[in-house]
Every structure is written in C-alpha cells, then in structure tokens.
Amino acid sequence: VKQPLTASGPAGVEPFGSIADIAERLRTKAISPVELTTAVLQRIDALNPHLHAFITVTADRALVQAERAEREIAAGRWRGPLHGIPFSLKDVYETKGIRTTAHSRALEDWIPERDATCVTRMDDAGAVLLGKTATQEFSTGAVTEGPWPAARNPWNLDYTPSGSSSGAGAAVAAGISFAALGGDTGASIRMPAAANGCVGIRPTYGRVSRHGVIPLSWSLDTCGPLARTVRDCALVLQAIAGYDPRDPGSAKVDVPTFDALLGTPIRGLRVGVDRRNFFHELVDPQVRTAVEEAIRAIERLGATVREIELPWLAYAHAAQNVIHMTESHAYHETRIKREPYLYGPSLRAYLRLGAFVSGAEYLHAQRVRAKIRAGMLAAFHEVDVILAPTGARFGERFDEIDASKRFSGGIGSKGNLAVPFSQAGVPAISLPCGFAAEGLPIGLQIAGRPFDEATVFQVAHAYEAATPWHDMHPPIELETKP
Amino acid sequence: MSLRAFATKDDLRAAAREAGLGDLEPEELALLKIFHDDACAFGDALRNAVAADDEPATVFRALRAS
Asked: Chain B within 8 Å of A219 (Cβ-Cβ)?
C-alpha cells in the first residue's frame, strides 16, 4: 500500500476536528450526530483495511446511538461535550453483547454480559461507540502475534503505532475516531500517543475505574483517553473519572474540572527536568533535540526550569518488570498451564516467566517501587511538573520487531521512559513535540502530582497552543463527495 | 523458584515442568531462556536495591500502596 492513503467523506465534516469544536456544532445543530457518525464510519471503511486499527466496528449500534443523540439534542437535552461524539475502545473493555477479544485467540469469541464502568460512563455522556480497537495480545504480547492483523502507524504503514493501545493511537491520529479509551500499565497510552502524534494521558492510579477491563497487572493498571488535543483529552477524562466501589483500586477523591486551568498562563510554574535518568545513552538524538526544544519553549512561556535528580530510578525497570510479570502470570495462571497454545509465542513465554518469581522478589520489587514513589513525591515539593521524553526512540519498523528483545531494547528496557511515572502512580501525559527526519512524531511527557491532572493539562495545553504539532496530520488524502 | 540463573536449558526445562508449565517445545524453551536470563538481572538488581534501603518499614508501605 502506498501512502498517502485515500479516504472519502461527505462535505462539512472535518475528520481531524477537535471534540471541543465539533461539540459546539452538534449543540447548535450545525451538524447532526448521524451525519457525523456516518462520515466517520465511511472513513473507517476506507482506511481500516490498511490501518487495521479496529478489530470490530459496531456500525449499527453507532448509528442507533447517534440517532438517540440527535433526538435528544433536537429536544433540547444536550448532555455535554461528548454528546454525539464518535469514539472507540481498546478491545480490553468489556462491552455487553459485543465481542471483547484482548486481541487474543484465547478470547476470540467472548461476548461479555456487562459493560465496563468506563463504557457506561461514556454512554451516559452520550458518546457514540464506533467499535473495538487493536492492541498487543492481552496488552503485552507482540503486536504481530494475535489472530487479527496488527494496527499500523498512519504516518508510515511500515511502522508500528507502538502499543499496547495501538489501534487507539492509530485511529485517533488517522481521523477515524475523535477519541479512544486505552489502558496504561507501563506506557501503553503514552507510547502510542507519541508514536501517532496525538495526546494521551495516564491518569493517577485510582482516578478511573478499571471495573470490567481485562487486567494486565493489577497494581499498575490504569485506564485513560487518547485524543487529538489536550482539551479533548481533558473532556474525555472528565466523563470517565470518579470513584467506583467495584474497582478495589478506585480512589475516593473529588473529581475537579480538568479543563479549568486551560489557557491560564504557566508563568511562575516550576518545571523539573531529570537529565540523568531521562536523557541517557539510549535516547535517540532526534528525540533529545525535540524534547530539549520543548523544554525551552515551556521556559519561554514563563515557567522556571530546574534540574532535579529522582532517586531509585536505576531500579525502576527491574521493579516494573518483576511486578508486571508476576501479576500477569497470576491472572493467566490457569490458562497458561492448561491451554498455552491459545497465546502467541512471545506472550506465552512472558506469562510463563512470571512463574519463576519468588515471593521475596515480588516484595523487593514493591518495596523499591515505594521508594521510587516516595522520591518522586518529595520532588513534587520542589517542582509542579516533570518533563521528559515519552520514549527513547520515535518508531519501530515492523520488519525490525524482535520479541526476544523485550528486556534488552523493547518495552521492558530502560528505553521505556514512561515507566518511572507508572511506578510512582502519578499522572503523565504525552503530546507531540516534533518530528524525526523519517516523518514520524516524537512525544513530550509531562508528569504531575497525584490527582493533579489539571496542572498537567494546563502545562500541556500551554505548550500545545504555542507550537504547531497538533495541527499536523498523517498523509491521508480526503476525497470529498458533494 | 526465583529469578536466579539456570546453568543449562535442561535445568530450565526441569524447573518449568516443576512449576506446572508442562513440557516445553525447543523453540518455546529458547525464548523462555532468553527472557529468564534477562530477568535474572532484575532479581539481582532488586536484591541490591533493598540491601541499600535502610528503612525496613518501606515494605509495609509498599504493601499498603499496592
């Protein structure tokens, strides 16, 4: 397949429009939810055979939801900014009556009898579900080993969209979903956001319910949104955040208005940069250059940049991997012993690996993690946010995938710069901050204090507003039909 | 079981069997061996890390947090 890809659609629907803009057009009836959903479904038809972002497209249900939204808006019952907005779910969210596969043969035909809490909350907000998106097998296997094709990066189909919310990132970037819900255990929202040139936030651990979401690693798992702008991410997080007694990790804390600080100057905010731990030898020079320029841009906006050095991060990946492999093994233990052939080869090996971890080693990992968290919380007495690259690299070609290098260059290596914030359980966002010479996006990561997503959004939005990256889209030509 | 290196693939094969993972095919064993060898470095790193932690109560905080 040669790029640019071509998609068609009716006039008047901007596929890369923001939720904030489209919501106003929906509210004022300048466009109808049915027109909007139909346009996006047509675009999915044209692009998904090349991108493989969706495993399942729920077109009929989407149109029913869109018609409902249309009736409600016409009757003056506008529910808010997600009313009538088409979105997608990583295929680990349970959806009542809709196949939920985790991109694995093990769940190939599983149809849940309930909706995940996040699905219910998006429904309550009036959003329109387009379908279920591709992932790495059970959010951690190799992208190429599931029973459906791997999602591809819309910027260059020879590259992966990263993962594990791979289809989510590809769909949002390609303009076939206005937002997507993903999952982030180590980096799985932020890395695909970076790889696809969109925005994704891992919320504070406990901020968003995981009830009805297939687990990967209980003490690390989070759910969160990907979208094309910072404000859109804030709007979606607003809809899904909040305490849920059905998730034992859910936090009973107030939910602020996440976009309240957007547009507020960041002059005087204190920004921390830890160059020893986040700009090490594995960081690609193009990534380094782009992120250093982003730091200077944020400084020009009035923030004060200071060097910090976070303690214990030398052990972050050891702790992350040991916790992750142990908890993953625990979840899959019965099936990996009885029906290992249902898993792809690399996930099979990874899930088996967890059987070798001793109780003491798991506790060592949790203990180190507690030190990492304590060190980071101490740093947040000195700074308001921490900036870092999202990943050490900017892209991975499909023909360079080597699943055996999971820990020696892959997602389990210290090139995964999202991990320290996952360990600490703090919120962290990735947004575009430039492009490599190869034409692939690079991500900037901004982390904040626990439950202070609002400040993270504030800084991210200020940077976004001062730079052009969010207005750049993959090479997809739109043939407009009258 | 623990994240400590096995001398040979046969040792790993026997340990996998003992762990209830069954008899692994050669290619399965090869990939598991690579992962296990890498993971042993994590086990060593964590043992070194906790040895440097002079605050034993950390482990209770860790359990509460997790």
From this structure: yes
